[in-house]
User: Fold this.
Amino acid sequence: MLSLEMKSSVAIATVAGFVVLSASSAIAQEKMERPDVAFGEVITEERLALWNIDIMTPTGGNLPAGQGTVAEGEEVFAETCAACHGEKAEGGPMFGTMVGGIGSMTESPRILTPGSMYPYAPILFDYTKRAMPLDNPQSLSDDEVYAVTAYIYHLNGLVEGDFIANSETLPEIQMPNRDAFFEDDRPDTQAERCMENCRPIGTVADASNSKN
Amino acid sequence: MREVREEEINSHLANTTTTAPKESEIELSSSRRKFLKSGMMMAGAVVGGGVALQARAQVLEVPESNKTMGQPIPETDYGMPIEFENHVKRRRSDVLVNRQNYSDWSMTPLHQQVGITTPNGLFFERHHNGVAYIDPDVHQLAIHGLVDRPLLFSMNDIMRYPSVSRFHFLECSGNTLTDWREAQSTTVQQSHGLLSCAQWTGVPLSWLLAEAGVRPEGKWVVFEGADGSGHLRSIPLEKVMDDGLLAYGQNGEMLRAEQGYPIRAIFPGWEGNTNVKWLRRIKVVEEPIHARGETARYTDPMPDGKWRQFSMEMECKSVITNPSGGMDLQGPGLYEIQGFAWSGNGTITNVDVTTDGGVTWHEAALEEPVMSKCLTRFRYRWTWDGAPSKIASRAVDNTGYVQPTVEDLARSREIVGFVQHHNGIFPWSVSQNGEVRNAIA
Assistant:
């Protein structure tokens, strides 16, 4: 049913004329030059309109037209989301809370919710539109996604009850975790290759004991 | 397939083995029997049992298989392992249990893997909304955004390019996350099983992006899957052009559905979820999009409420797989300590093994081939004197990076909640009666 026999034979037939670059080590894996071919079909961005759903979340770029209110979001949530996430997004049979946790980042545990964790509010729109509900993803209209986004941020105390989410208002929400992120700065350890009379392998508890 | 019973295994081994039965025998609790059985079969030892013992004093009989015709060759077939290996399975973890099995994972039995390639049916899984089912005849891949020519590819188009094949490991950023402060995992499958290795075949992503013509302002590239989660990650253009691969093949056959059939991205050495499966869209952008999967997930808790982001490389790591948690040593004597080492930053140059908890280390032998961003097997011959011991491995890669302890990691990171990128040295304790246990804490 999913046979690719024909395609494989085509691939083999076209393989010709490579240049294998010099190997930098004994076991280097081959790196080949790009062949002078172009098999992709040139298309327009317009044809990709239904696929092009990713949001540039820091700016809200690519957020679609449409809008939704907190009240509308409450209805969408009750119908579509509450069964897994709980009646007021406090956590349900499938997933944990989506409310609260603001101020918990210096505590243990950190409570991770859209309100406490997301640095940019449009992240919730992007994720809900592409991935929710789990059993019927990409089934909500843009208005419904805006509405349920407004509702969740309202439950987190980040917007008032009269908030209307759209491409202008959503990126404006001030997210408490906005400045908590920094780019990878590893390596962050400098272990040495001690062979004899070394310090025994330590534990996480050893690290906190010596910190105190 | 039927389940294989204990007696059948014993009978089979007694009839076919050419190795003398071991002196010692062990009584196995029923919960661990299956696991231990596999370990011993790998080591070529014999499970003590009635048949084997009775046979010891007698002339060996001609095995039944010498006296019968074998199975005929089927007209067509996809060969499967013999039923005696039915216990070798990918398993969902029972250490950290999700309440649904769509955004979930299953783990590779590393202690039962021989050699560096993971069989496709045992390759670990991590999905965000289950396994997508995609007909290659209708699948399409788009490249667009900051390019001169947006392009659309059918699978036929993709298969027309010359192909390259490379061996690389894949490791989930969350591998080993249950074992920081407490020793929660029993087996190495539970502690390290979000790790596998395969030979990947496909087309360099740099060729396709060059065909589309990346504009000068394009610096990052979004890769998006055609699965129910629409999983996506922003990847720096530099990595994509360096060694990114559009893979359709895995270990000599087309990808399994669980691995993204018909195509996925492979970013050698980078955390598993960047290797987007069921790939349908590549979009060149100026800046990362900061999706949920690169802010609220797949970020690392750091001191003072901070989060480390875009921590892509899976740093140098190793673990002993034999003997490992849940196994039993059969009395003092020679044991070959075996395991895997790997680095997302390059090639493994050294692996050291300790049997005294880290006071003394001995250089292990590395088994060829040793390849960049690929599993490397190490081995070290250890004569166990029967005293309680703590064994562990420590890997070094060609950047000079030395695998740290969890103590080292905890000094710079905040070990709170769902902590990823655990590449700490992983000790196993061996008790006086030979029981091997997780000793991370």
Remarks:
- The helical segments of chain A are 5-14, 70-80, 82-85, 114-117, 122-131, 142-155, 204-211.
- The beta strands of chain A are 41-42, 68-69, 164-165, 181-183.
